[in-house]
Structure to design on (889 residues):
C-alpha cells in the first residue's frame, strides 16, 4: 500500500465507522438483554466456567457429537481464531501502511504464523464449500424448519468463502489488482462484522460468552429448577413474556444459530408433537426484538409459544444436552409453564386429579396414604417411627416413592430391592405413611406452590429423624431429594438403587446363587433421563446387570446413554394424555425390541410403566425388568 | 347479583376410616379435609354466574361455612377460586341434626339480601341431603334440588334436573335456593394468584345460632371385613369342588 496516502486515511475512516456502528449494535443488544430478569447466578465458580469455555467452546466438544458437521464446523471456528490474527495485521497495515507483525516476533514464529494463515484459510474455504454443498444438495433434515432463517446461512457461507478468496487473491497479486482484492477483503470483513448483529450468525460473537455464562454443564446442580420465592416472587409467576425471563435466556436467543440439534433429539418432536425446542429459542429472540422496538402488543406465551407446545415437553433434557453452545431451552419452557399454572390455572384437565391428590393425599394417585407401607407387610421392614421408638437410627433410609408404594408393577421392584438390602444385611428403614410425593411432577408441571409444600413437608420429616443417607429406586425422587431439596435446606446423601446395589455387589455383600447353569441372556438397558442426563449415572445400572448375570450379553440401542430417548413419562407427561402423533413409548419400545434383546432393563418406575405397556401392546414376549429385580432373581 | 354458597368441610373419602374412641365420630387423625365435592361444584357455578353478568364486579359471591376454626381453611380455598368474601359461623361441637344446622344457616342468610342461595346436593360425608331444603323452608323461599344446569335471566332462575332417561326444566323467581348436582361445572383449580388474593379477602367469624338438635347419633360402626377369597384349583378339575362350595358353603345354588 505504499506510504501514508489518501487510501490509508480513507481506510481509517472506514474502520472507525465500522467499529463505531458495531459498538452501537453491541450497546443495542446489551440494552435488549437488560429487559430480562435479574439473574446473578452467572459469575460464580469461574474455574468451572473457564473449563466449560475451553471444552465446549474452544475445543468444540459438543459440536463433535455430529460426526459430519463437527469437523466441518471446527475447521471454520478454529480457522476464524487463527485468521483473526491475520485480519488484525491487515487492518493495522491498512491504517499504517507497511505494518507487519514480522519485526516484533522471531522469524520462524512469523513464518509459522504465515503458514497457518494459508493453511487455515484453505481449510475454512474447503469447509464452507462443503457446508454450502451440504445445505444445497443434502437438505439435512435438522436444518429445515419454517421457523428458521433459511437464506441466511447461504449468504453467510458465501460471504465467508468470498473472504477467503479475496484474502488469497490479495496475497497472490500486486498493483492495482492487489489493491482491489485488498479493499474487497477489508470491506467484506468489516461488513461481515456489522451484518452479524442482524443475523442468526450473531452466534459467531455470542456463542463463547454464552458457553461461559451457561449453567447447563455446571457450575451448580445440573438440571435443577430455579426456586421461586413464593412470598415475594409474585409480580408475575414464572414468565409470560421475554421481560420475565432471565437475561441469560435472552442471550440464548442471540447465541442460537438454528442448527436444529435440539429439535432433532426431542422425543416430542420426533413423534409428531408440536414442540420444537429450536422454535422456542428463535421465538425468544423474535419477541425480544419486537419488545425492544416498543411493540407490547404480543406476549411470548400464547402469541409465539402455545400451551400445546409447552405441555408436550417431557423435560428429558436431550435438547439441552445436545446444544453445542449450551443454550437452556428447558428453562424457558418451564418458566412459561409456571405462568400457565400459577398465574392462570391453565393446564390439561387430566392433570387436575394428580394435583389435587398430591395436595390431599401426598401422591399423584388417589390411594389411601395409610396404605403406603402396605407392600412391606410380612417382610419385617421397620419404619423410621418404629426405629425411633426403639431409640435406633438406621444406616440408610429407603425412600420408596409413590409408584414404588402404590403401583402394582413397581411394587415388585420395591420388594426386590428390599430383599437385596436384607440379603446384604443393610440396616435400613422406610418412612411408611410419613413419606409423601417428592413433588417433582408438580414442579415440572409448573406448580411450584404445590411442589414446595410437598418438599418442605418431606424435609421436615427427614430432619425429624436425622436422616443422612437416602436410597431410592426412583430417579425422580433421587434427583429431587438429592439435587433440589438443598434449595430448601434439605441436605442428604442420596443414592440411586442402581449405584447402591452395584457398590454392595462390588463389596461382596450380595450373596448370589452359583452361576453354573445360568443361560445366556441378551438384555438392552433403557436409560432414564433423570438418572442419566440429569445425574450422569450411566454405568452403575449396566455394571449391576453384568455382575448379576455372568452370562449377560448387553446390547445397546442406537440412542443410549446421554443420547438416550425418553420413555415419555417425564415432566408430568405421566399424568397427561398423549393424543398427538406417535406415542413416545412406542418409539422407544420399538427401538429396544429392534436390538433383538430378550429382555429390557430399566432403572425407573416411570420408564417401567411406559416400556412394559408398549412392549405388551405389541404382543411381544420380551420382559421388562428393573435392575433390582434382575439381581433379586439371582439371590442365593 | 348477590349469591351465597354454603360449603362444608369434609374428609377426603379415598381413605379407610377409623371410628374414634367415643364411638360416635370418625377418628380424624391423619385425615385430609377439603371442600365437599358438590359444594365445590356450587362455588364454581356461582363464580360462572358472576362472570356472566354484564358487570361482574357489581355481583358478589359470599361463601358461608359452619364449624370450628378449621373451616376457615375451606373458606379460603373457595375464595382462592374466586369467591369475594367469607363468613364462618363458629360452632365447635359436632352437629348431626340437619335442622339444627339449617337454623343457624338461615339465621345468617336472612336479611343478607341474597338473590340466590346455593348448596351442594349433599355433603359427601354424611349424605343427608336435607340441609338446603330445610333452609329454603325456614327462609320461605322456593328451592330446586339437584340441578345440573343453571341460568339466571331477569329475576328468574331456570334450572335443569336430570331424571332417569329424561330431564326437566324448572323456572322459579328470585330470590331462590338451589342445590347443585354434579355435571354443572368442574371446579377450577386455584391459581397461586388466587391463593395470594384469597389471603387478603375478608373472612368474618360470628357465633352460629344453632337450633336445638332433635336427634342424637348413638353409635358408628364399620362394616365387617370381607373374608379373603380362596383359590380352589385351576381349569376343569376345579369345577366339581366349586359347585359343591357354592351349594354347601355359599348356599347360592
Amino acid at each position: 500500500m505504499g506510504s501514508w496516502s489518501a487510501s490509508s486515511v480513507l481506510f481509517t475512516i472506514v474502520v472507525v465507522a465500522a467499529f463505531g456502528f458495531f459498538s452501537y449494535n453491541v450497546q443495542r443488544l446489551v440494552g435488549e438483554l437488560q429487559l430480562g430478569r435479574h439473574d446473578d447466578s452467572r459469575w460464580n465458580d469461574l474455574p468451572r466456567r473457564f473449563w466449560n469455555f475451553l471444552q465446549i467452546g474452544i475445543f468444540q466438544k459438543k459440536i463433535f457429537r455430529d460426526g459430519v458437521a463437527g469437523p466441518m464446523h471446527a475447521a471454520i471456528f478454529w480457522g476464524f481464531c487463527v485468521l483473526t490474527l491475520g485480519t488484525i495485521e491487515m487492518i493495522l497495515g491498512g491504517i499504517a501502511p507497511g505494518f507487519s507483525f514480522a519485526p516484533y516476533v522471531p522469524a520462524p514464529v512469523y513464518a509459522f504464523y504465515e503458514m497457518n494463515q494459508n493453511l487455515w484459510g484453505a481449510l475454512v474455504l474447503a469447509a464452507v464449500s462443503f457446508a454450502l454443498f451440504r445445505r444445497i444438495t443434502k437438505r439435512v433434515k435438522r436444518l429445515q424448519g419454517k421457523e428458521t432463517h433459511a437464506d441466511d446461512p447461504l449468504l453467510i457461507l458465501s460471504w465467508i468463502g468470498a473472504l477467503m478468496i479475496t484474502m488469497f487473491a490479495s496475497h497472490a497479486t500486486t498493483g492495482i489488482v492487489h489493491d482491489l482484492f485488498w479493499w474487497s477483503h477489508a470491506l467484506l470483513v468489516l461488513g461481515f462484522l456489522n451484518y452479524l448483529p442482524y443475523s442468526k450468525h450473531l452466534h459467531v460473537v455470542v456463542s463463547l460468552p454464552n458457553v461461559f455464562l451457561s449453567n447447563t454443564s455446571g457450575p451448580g446442580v445440573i438440571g435443577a429448577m430455579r426456586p421461586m420465592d413464593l412470598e415475594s416472587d409474585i409480580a408475575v409467576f414464572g414468565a409470560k413474556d421475554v421481560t420475565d425471563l432471565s437475561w441469560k435466556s435472552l442471550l440464548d436467543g442471540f447465541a442460537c444459530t438454528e442448527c436444529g440439534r435440539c429439535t432433532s433429539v426431542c422425543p416430542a418432536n420426533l413423534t409428531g408433537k408440536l414442540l420444537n425446542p429450536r422454535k422456542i429459542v428463535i421465538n425468544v429472540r423474535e419477541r425480544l426484538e419486537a419488545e425492544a422496538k416498543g411493540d407490547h402488543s404480543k406476549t411470548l406465551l400464547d402469541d409465539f409459544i402455545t400451551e400445546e407446545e409447552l405441555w408436550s415437553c417431557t423435560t428429558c433434557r436431550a435438547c439441552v444436552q445436545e446444544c453445542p453452545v449450551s443454550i437452556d431451552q428447558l428453562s424457558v419452557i418451564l418458566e412459561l409453564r409456571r405462568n400457565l399454572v400459577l398465574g392462570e390455572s391453565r393446564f390439561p384437565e387430566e392433570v387436575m386429579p394428580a394435583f389435587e391428590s398430591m395436595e390431599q393425599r401426598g401422591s399423584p394417585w388417589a390411594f389411601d396414604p395409610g396404605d403406603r407401607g402396605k407392600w412391606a407387610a410380612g417382610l419385617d421392614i421397620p419404619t423410621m417411627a418404629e426405629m425411633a421408638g426403639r431409640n435406633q437410627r438406621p444406616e440408610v433410609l429407603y425412600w420408596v416413592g409413590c409408584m414404588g408404594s402404590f403401583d402394582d408393577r413397581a411394587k415388585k421392584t420395591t420388594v426386590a430391592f428390599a430383599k437385596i438390602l436384607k440379603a446384604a444385611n443393610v440396616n435400613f428403614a422406610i418412612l411408611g405413611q410419613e413419606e409423601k410425593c417428592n413433588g417433582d411432577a408438580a414442579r415440572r408441571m409448573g406448580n411450584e406452590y404445590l411442589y414446595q409444600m410437598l418438599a418442605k413437608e418431606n424435609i421436615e420429616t427427614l430432619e425429624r429423624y436425622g436422616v443422612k443417607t437416602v436410597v431410592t429406586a426412583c430417579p425422580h425422587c433421587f434427583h429431587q431429594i438429592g439435587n433440589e431439596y438443598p434449595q430448601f435446606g434439605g441436605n442428604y446423601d442420596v443414592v440411586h438403587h442402581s449405584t447402591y446395589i452395584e457398590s454392595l455387589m462390588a463389596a461382596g455383600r450380595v450373596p448370589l446363587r452359583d452361576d453354573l447353569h445360568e443361560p445366556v441372556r441378551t438384555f438392552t438397558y433403557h436409560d432414564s433421563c433423570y438418572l442419566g442426563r440429569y445425574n450422569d449415572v450411566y454405568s452403575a445400572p449396566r455394571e449391576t446387570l453384568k455382575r448379576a448375570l455372568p452370562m449377560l450379553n448387553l446390547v445397546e440401542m442406537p440412542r443410549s446413554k446421554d443420547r438416550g430417548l425418553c420413555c415419555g413419562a417425564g415432566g408430568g407427561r405421566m399424568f397427561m394424555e398423549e393424543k398427538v402423533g406417535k406415542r413416545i413409548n412406542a418409539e422407544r419400545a420399538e427401538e429396544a425390541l429392534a436390538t433383538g434383546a430378550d429382555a429390557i432393563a430399566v432403572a425407573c418406575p416411570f420408564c417401567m410403566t411406559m416400556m412394559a405397556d408398549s412392549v405388551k401392546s405389541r404382543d411381544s414376549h420380551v420382559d421388562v425388568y428393573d435392575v433390582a429385580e434382575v439381581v433379586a432373581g439371582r439371590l442365593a | 347479583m348477590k349469591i351465597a354458597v354454603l360449603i362444608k368441610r369434609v374428609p377426603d373419602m379415598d381413605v379407610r376410616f377409623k371410628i374414634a374412641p367415643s364411638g360416635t365420630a370418625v377418628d380424624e387423625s391423619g385425615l385430609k379435609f377439603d371442600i365437599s365435592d358438590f359444594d365445590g361444584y356450587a362455588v364454581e357455578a356461582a363464580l360462572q354466574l358472576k362472570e356472566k353478568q354484564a358487570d361482574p364486579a357489581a355481583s358478589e359471591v359470599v361463601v358461608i361455612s359452619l364449624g370450628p376454626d378449621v373451616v376457615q381453611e375451606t373458606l379460603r380455598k373457595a375464595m382462592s377460586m374466586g369467591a369475594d368474601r367469607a363468613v364462618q359461623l363458629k360452632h365447635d361441637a359436632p352437629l348431626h341434626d340437619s335442622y339444627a344446622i339449617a337454623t343457624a344457616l338461615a339465621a345468617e342468610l336472612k336479611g343478607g339480601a341474597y338473590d340466590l342461595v346455593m348448596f351442594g346436593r349433599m355433603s359427601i360425608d354424611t349424605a343427608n341431603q336435607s340441609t338446603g331444603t330445610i333452609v329454603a323452608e325456614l327462609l320461605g323461599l322456593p328451592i330446586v334440588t339437584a340441578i345440573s344446569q343453571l341460568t339466571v335471566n331477569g329475576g328468574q332462575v331456570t334450572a335443569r334436573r336430570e331424571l332417569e332417561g329424561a330431564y326437566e326444566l324448572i323456572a322459579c323467581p328470585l330470590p331462590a335456593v338451589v342445590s347443585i348436582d354434579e355435571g354443572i361445572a368442574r371446579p377450577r383449580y386455584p391459581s397461586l394468584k388466587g391463593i395470594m388474593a384469597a389471603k387478603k379477602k375478608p373472612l368474618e367469624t360470628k357465633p352460629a345460632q344453632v337450633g336445638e338438635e332433635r336427634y342424637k347419633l348413638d353409635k358408628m360402626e364399620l362394616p365387617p371385613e370381607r373374608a379373603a377369597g380362596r383359590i380352589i384349583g385351576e381349569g376343569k378339575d376345579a369345577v366339581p369342588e366349586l359347585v359343591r362350595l357354592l351349594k354347601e358353603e355359599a348356599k347360592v345354588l
Notes: The interface with chain B takes residues 230, 234, 237, 341-345, 347, 349, 352, 355-356, 360-361, 366-370, 433, 448-449 of chain A (CB under 8 Å). Strands of chain A lie at 396-399, 428-429, 469-472, 493-496, 521-525, 552-555, 599-602, 623-626. Chain A has four domains: 6-34+66-139+150-198, 242-345, 350-505, 514-632. The longest helix of chain A spans residues 107-138.
